[in-house]
From TrEMBL:
It comes from Methanolobus profundi. GO terms for molecular function: nucleic acid binding; zinc ion binding. NCBIfam families: PRK09521.1 (NF034126). Belongs to the CSL4 family. Residues 118-196 form the S1 motif domain. This is Exosome complex component Csl4. The keyword Metal-binding applies.
Length: 241
């Protein structure tokens, strides 16, 4: 997704215009928002309100896209928070629960995927240790990219970052980075980013938290000018999974 498209998504969400053209009840068929029940009962009013919750929004997003802020929404499934901004962790459609003000990203598929060795995943770095980066897996390439359950975060060990020696893991990954990695062990959920197309797909400035632009083999913050390093994917900034 281009920077302009990302801005358009943010604008639609903030203005409340990213809403479906029609709303559906649990019993099927389109329902007008202010339609009154035939018997005029309060109970049916409440039921109609429930029917209007959890409606799917019509905005398609890619991993890392900005979809809202914590001032407007609570971050739901398929999202992650960078400072006060809510970003998509998956490829899918924005979904807003207007009753709880929760925003999520819902992939479109009917069969829950299963992670196997060799799968390529996309996820967000949620914790950094001296020799391990912990990643919350958001989607599996080629398997519908649906949300799924995992037993905790997956791990990228310093020895699996790339095919050369890594002295400082903090120069390869940072918190909230969106990464593309390959599964090498499903028993303890080990990942590797050793590969041209694997690595960080979107990064945020450690000083001002703005999305960083790729400048040759390094990253430059367009806001404060800070230069940082990462183990970059060749797909950095493209939104291609």
């Amino acid at each position: 997704m281009t920077e302009q498209a990302t801005a358009d998504v943010q604008a639609e969400v903030q203005k409340g215009s990213a809403r479906p053209k029609k709303e559906h009840s649990k019993r099927g068929g389109a329902r007008k928002k202010n339609m009154q029940p035939e018997n005029g009962s309060r109970e049916d009013d409440d039921m109609d309100a429930e029917d209007e919750v959890n409606t799917e929004e019509s905005v398609f997003v890619m991993p890392g896209d900005l979809i809202g802020t914590t001032e407007e929404f609570r971050a739901g499934n398929g999202t992650f928070v960078n400072v006060a901004d809510i970003h998509s962790l998956n490829t899918g459609y924005v979904k807003v629960n207007r009753k709880s003000r929760t925003i999520s990203v819902v992939p479109q598929t009917s069969i829950p995927p299963e992670i196997v060795e060799g799968d390529v995943i996309v996820g967000s770095v949620v914790n950094m240790r001296e020799s391990v980066a912990l990643v919350e897996v958001g989607a599996i390439k080629g398997k519908g990219e649906r949300e799924f359950q995992t037993n905790g975060a997956a791990a990228i060990h310093v020895s699996n970052v790339k095919d050369s020696y890594v002295k400082n893991l903090g120069q390869e990954f940072s918190l909230s980075d969106v990464v593309k990695a390959k599964v090498i062990n499903t028993q303890n959920m080990r990942l590797t980013t050793d590969g041209k197309d694997l690595g960080v797909m979107k990064a945020y400035c450690s000083r001002c938290h703005s999305p960083m632009d790729k400048d040759n083999n390094r990253l430059k913050c367009p806001e404060c000018g800070r230069i940082e390093k990462r183990k970059l994917s060749s797909d950095y900034g493209t939104g291609i999974f």
